[in-house]
Amino acid sequence: MAFEDKIKELINKREMARLGGGEKRIEAQHAKGKLTARERIELLLDEGSFEEFDMFVTHRCNMFKLEEQKVLGDGVVTGHGTIDGRVVYVFSQDFTVFGGSLSEMFARKIVKVMDEALKVGAPVIGINDSGGARIQEGVLSLAGYADIFQRNIEASGVIPQISAVFGPCAGGAVYSPALTDFILMSEQQSYMFVTGPKVTKTVIGEDISIEDLGGYKVHSVKSGVTHFVAETEEEGLMMLRKLLSYLPQNNLEESPLFECSDPIDRIEDSLNHIIPDDVNKPYDVLDIIGAIVDNGEFMEVHSAYARNMVVGFARFNGQAVGIVANQPNFLAGVLDVDSSRKAARFVRFCDAFNIPIITLVDVPGFMPGSAQEYGGIIIHGAKLMFAYGEATVPKITITLRKSYGGAHDVMACKQLKADLNYAWPSAEIAVMGASGAVQILNAKEIKNIEDPNEQAQFVVDKEEEYRKYFANPYQAAQFGFIDDVIEPRNTRFRIIRGLSLLQTKKETRPPKKHGNIPL
Ligand code: HXC
Hints:
Elements: H1 3-18, H2 23-31, H3 37-44, E1 51-53, E2 76-83, E3 86-93, H4 104-120, E4 124-128, H5 139-155, E5 161-165, E6 168-170, H6 175-179, E7 182-186, E8 191-193, H7 197-204, H8 210-214, H9 216-222, E9 228-230, H10 233-245, H11 285-292, E10 299-301, E11 309-316, E12 319-326, H12 337-352, E13 357-363, H13 370-374, H14 377-390, E14 395-404, H15 405-410, E15 420-423, E16 428-430, H16 434-441, H17 443-448, H18 452-470, H19 474-478, E17 484-485, H20 491-501
Parallel strand pairs: 3-4, 4-5, 5-7, 6-8, 7-9, 12-13, 13-14, 14-15, 14-16, 15-17
Antiparallel strand pairs: 1-2, 2-3, 10-11, 11-12
The chain binds hexanoyl-coenzyme A.
């Protein structure tokens, strides 16, 4: 073959590979409102930065007449490119080829990008749109999945791993996204479950739709499996780009520093009026976050799940931080099973990737009741405590209002080795709130007062007395558990100064194989 013909052959092969399962199937994909695997990569990465691996890989299965159906690339597009000029590795499952089902060679392609990403120290983004294990390949595809899972596990805490789910993700296939740091689902055609509706009906008789079993609403609100939801795939891909802007390339690096146009000494007077006089009145902690971070920009994670806790990324003076905040606007910001789990995972992510943690506390305590106790609040609350206590990144805690009981300890108190603990003058740091305390401490006296008015007055007086001692930050400050009581309007500046101070922080824990976080 002449040299020029060889080049033509290469170009033809590339064109064939780019067509995946063919034009008809691409049309069918578009008709469902979905983008193709390649279109997704194009939108995700910086223009022209994508370099593909393994375009000519095909499967090796000679059963079920598969030998007659070999598609270049075998159903997954893999390679690397850049996002805002920083290297990322990607794989994007191609539903137009055998329904994006995972074969032995398909898995090998994914394993290759993961291995390369680990070598180079760059994030991996996986886009899932697949019918699961390629049925014709049997155990080879199961082994392929397990090879990927093992890479996910080894890469965990070393490079950021992010999953987008833009189609089916069913059966054991869900476990690769589940092992990654963040999952994003789209509102269209995206669903995840271990067992589909048909088998669910057969095995346990439950009749349930695919959306109700594993759609985006279920996983963003109820299960907490997905961290982000996007209305469209395009929006989702932009969200992934934004998310990466807060993250370092790997666990040995820092997040990128951004130019900060928001004055670092901006005084936010509104914060001096934001806490209601009535301690039981809610307010939106998102307003406080918005007022203190650079340009009010906050990327909330898990925004629809366990809303009594807010977690997400923001910047102070251009430096990325993780923010963890109780949300008085939802269940009074109480700690329960879901919110503890949500915050614990986020704190561990930040610690693994050198992202300082800012904690805003307004917590009335742990949610009481059998539902929480049976649900294992003891273990889940301990998770959050463990996560904070093992974290060695800079930790700054601001107590805004309530900080009661065990929840006070859990929420990055001084003894969990927070570096800087500030409180607003509205802080109340105590074993419990005034009414609960009086009912316990003065139970006998209350019972002995027969006249109801007199009894009510006694309770009011006792509560007032209790508040005098504990409904303020000064007892905690007196013991040095609070480093300073600050004016709310200065919060931004104090955090920025704290972060700057802590830039050279070095803290280690005793060497060990790994801790045993209460899972
Ligand atoms: C091989 C598959 C396939 C699979 C789909 N296809 N899934 N081929 N193995 N797992 C093929 C179809 O035969 C079809 O080929 C093409 O992909 C498109 O599929 P359709 O069914 O036409 O598409 P749609 O109607 O959109 O339905 C999508 C689907 C459905 C819901 C994903 O295909 C489906 O239920 N597939 C099986 C899902 C499944 O049970 N997978 C195994 C899960 S267990 P043609 O040639 O007709 O276009 C698992 C274990 C992993 O994954 C364990 C890891 C530990």
